[in-house]
Amino acid sequence: MKKTFIYILGLSLSCTVLRAQETVYPAKPQQGLVFLKNATIHVGNGQVIQNGTIGFNNGKITAVGANVAIPADDVKVFDVNGQHIYPGLIAPESNLGLTEVEAVRATNDYEEVGEINPSVRSIVSYNTDSKVIATLRTNGILLAQVTPQGGLLSGSSSVVQLDAWNWEDAAYKTDNGIHFFMPRLMPRANPFGSSGTGPATDAVKAAMEKVASVKSFLREAQAYNAGEKHDETNLKYEAVKGLFNRSQKLYIHANLVKELIVAADFAKEFDIDVVIVGGTDAWMITDVLKQYGIPVILEQPHNLPVMQDDDVDQPYKTPAQLQKAGILFCISNEGFWQQRNLPFNAGTAAAYGMTKEEALSAVTLNAAKILGIGDKTGSLEVGKDANIVVSTGDILDMKSSVITRAYIQGREISLEDKHKQLYERYKYKYDLK
C-alpha cells in the first residue's frame, strides 16, 4: 500500500526530540522503494528538472524525471513540494576525522614522522565518532576525501561516506591517491643561515633538491614494480604501485606557477595521473594543464591572493576562469571543520562568473570525477548511489539553504549535530521561544 508523507519543515523541527550525539546512530541499509516528488531536481551535470520526482531502492537511484510513474503498492512517497533536491556534496582534501581539536595533540592523527611515507593510510585513522562530521552533513556534505599531511610524500587518501560505525563501514573508495606536498618554490632567504651564523640559504635550491628526492624515489619505485618477483617486500614501493597502472592518482599540493609546471613534469616523466591541490595560480597556465589533462582541486577560495600584484578578488574569479578554459576542477575548503562552508564557497564562485549549476558541479560531479568515484556518485542519475540532499532553498546560498532530508546510499541519515543541540540547550535555559 502506498504511503504518502507531506513533509512540513516547521512542524518537523518543532516536534524533533533532541538527542545527544552519542545516541544518534548510523542509519540501517535502505529497504523498500522510496520516492521524493514535486521538487526542483538539480541533477549535478547542469540539468535542472522542474516539478520532478526521484526514486531509489536498495541504495541505488531507480528513476529521475518530471513524469516518473510511482507504483501503487509497497512504496514510501514523500511530497517535498517547493523544495530542491541535490546530489550529496563532496569535500575533497580534508583531514576530517583525523583531528578533533587542533590545539589538543592527542586528538590529532594526520601526520607521520619523516619525509617519504607513501605507505601511511589515512583511512585506518579515520574517527567516525568525530563531533565535526555531523556539522558537515547538516549542510549537505555526505562524502569526504580524508587526506594525510606532513613531509613530502605523506601517504594515501581515501574517500569516506559520513554515516558509519567504523572506518571499514565508512570506506567509499580506499587509497585513491598518494599525496605529495611540494615545498614552496619561492625565494625566502634565511637571515640566520643554515647554522645560525653562516650565509643565507637558497630556499628555491633546497626545495628543488627535495623535489629531486621525490622523483628519485618514484623512479626506484617504478623499476621495483616493473619486476615480477622480489626477495624482499618494500612497503613504500608497493604503496605507490597504483600510480603506474593508473589505479591511483598523484595529488600534488602546489600553488605557484613554478610549482605547477614542476607538477606537470611529473605527469610527463612518469606517465601518471596528476591532480593539482591548491592551484592558486592555475588560471595563469591553463594551456599547460589542458595539454597534460591535469585537473585542479581549488583550495579555500575564500582567501586573499598570494601575490601582491594579483587582483584582490582573484581567488573568487579563478573557478570561472578554469571553467571557461575547459579545465576539470572542483572546490575544497582547507581543513576539517571549515568544510561545512563548502557549498557557500561554490556560491561565491557563482557570483563571480559561473552559473549556479556549474558551481554545483564543482562540489558534486566534478569532485567525484577527480576523486575517481564519478561512476558511483556526484549526480542524480539512474544506477548511481542514492546520495541525495533535500533543501528548502538554494543549497549554495547561506541564507536560504536549510537541509531537511539527506540520504547516503538510500539510507536516511540524522541531521542532528552539536551546534543544533547547543542552540536548543540555551534556548531552553533562557526560555526563548
From TrEMBL:
Question: In this protein, which residues make up the domain named Amidohydrolase-related?
Answer: 349-410
- Per its UniProt record, what PROSITE patterns does this chain match? PROKAR_LIPOPROTEIN
Mark the transmembrane ranges: none
InterPro entries, alphabetically?
Amidohydro-rel, Metal-dep_hydrolase_composite, Metal_Hydrolase, Metallo-dep_Hydrolase
Which range is the signal sequence, renumbered to this chain? Answer: 1-20
List, alphabetically, the Pfam families matched: Amidohydro_1 (PF01979)
Question: Which keywords, in A-to-Z order, does the entry hold?
Answer: Signal
The protein's name in its UniProt record: Amidohydrolase family protein
